[in-house]
Every structure is written in C-alpha cells, then in structure tokens.
Amino acid sequence: MSEGAKLIGAGAATIALAGAAVGIGNVFSSLIHSVARNPSLAKQLFGYAILGFALTEAIALFALMMAFLILFVF
C-alpha cells in the first residue's frame, strides 16, 4: 500500500514538469515576438529571456527533486 502511494505521489509531482515546459515555450515565444517587433533591443531581450528560462527551469528542477525525494527517501 505504501509503495503504491509513493508512486502516485511521485507521478503527481512530475506534473509540474509539463507546466515548466509550457512556461519555457512561452518565454522563448515571447522573445521571438519581441525581437520581431523591435530588433534593436534583441540583446537586452535575450538577457531577460535567459533569466526567465533559468527561473522556469528552477521550478522544474524543484519538482523533479520532490519526485525523487518521494520515491527514494520516504
């Protein structure tokens, strides 16, 4: 019973990875649209996009860490 609950909990924790993937797609989609509208700001916008990517990826890594903690520690 406990092993099944761990697997269900880890699977639920990995749902956040799909949300992070959508978020990363939105970041770079917005970058492409912004550069198309104003190419002179491409360098500055790229820096902002990398920051958004890093923060979104951090959320994905936290979700993956929670899934591994559920599986292997509890």
TrEMBL record:
<dbReference type="GO" id="GO:0045259">
    <property type="term" value="C:proton-transporting ATP synthase complex"/>
</dbReference>
<dbReference type="InterPro" id="IPR035921">
    <property type="entry name" value="F/V-ATP_Csub_sf"/>
</dbReference>
<keyword id="KW-0813">Transport</keyword>
<keyword id="KW-1133">Transmembrane helix</keyword>
<dbReference type="GO" id="GO:0015078">
    <property type="term" value="F:proton transmembrane transporter activity"/>
</dbReference>
<keyword id="KW-0446">Lipid-binding</keyword>
<keyword id="KW-0406">Ion transport</keyword>
<comment type="function">
    <text>This protein is one of the chains of the nonenzymatic membrane component (F0) of mitochondrial ATPase.</text>
</comment>
<keyword id="KW-0375">Hydrogen ion transport</keyword>
<keyword id="KW-0547">Nucleotide-binding</keyword>
<comment type="subunit">
    <text>F-type ATPases have 2 components, CF(1) - the catalytic core - and CF(0) - the membrane proton channel. CF(1) has five subunits: alpha(3), beta(3), gamma(1), delta(1), epsilon(1). CF(0) has three main subunits: a, b and c.</text>
</comment>
<feature type="domain" description="V-ATPase proteolipid subunit C-like">
    <location>
        <begin position="8"/>
        <end position="70"/>
    </location>
</feature>
<dbReference type="GO" id="GO:0005524">
    <property type="term" value="F:ATP binding"/>
</dbReference>
<keyword id="KW-0812">Transmembrane</keyword>
<dbReference type="GO" id="GO:0008289">
    <property type="term" value="F:lipid binding"/>
</dbReference>
<dbReference type="GO" id="GO:0031966">
    <property type="term" value="C:mitochondrial membrane"/>
</dbReference>
<keyword id="KW-0138">CF(0)</keyword>
<dbReference type="GO" id="GO:0015986">
    <property type="term" value="P:proton motive force-driven ATP synthesis"/>
</dbReference>
<protein>
    <recommendedName>
        <fullName>ATP synthase subunit 9, mitochondrial</fullName>
    </recommendedName>
</protein>
<dbReference type="InterPro" id="IPR002379">
    <property type="entry name" value="ATPase_proteolipid_c-like_dom"/>
</dbReference>
<comment type="similarity">
    <text>Belongs to the ATPase C chain family.</text>
</comment>
<dbReference type="InterPro" id="IPR020537">
    <property type="entry name" value="ATP_synth_F0_csu_DDCD_BS"/>
</dbReference>
<dbReference type="InterPro" id="IPR038662">
    <property type="entry name" value="ATP_synth_F0_csu_sf"/>
</dbReference>
<dbReference type="InterPro" id="IPR000454">
    <property type="entry name" value="ATP_synth_F0_csu"/>
</dbReference>
<dbReference type="Pfam" id="PF00137">
    <property type="entry name" value="ATP-synt_C"/>
</dbReference>
<keyword id="KW-0472">Membrane</keyword>
<dbReference type="GO" id="GO:0033177">
    <property type="term" value="C:proton-transporting two-sector ATPase complex, proton-transporting domain"/>
</dbReference>
<keyword id="KW-0496">Mitochondrion</keyword>
<keyword id="KW-0067">ATP-binding</keyword>
<feature type="transmembrane region" description="Helical">
    <location>
        <begin position="47"/>
        <end position="73"/>
    </location>
</feature>
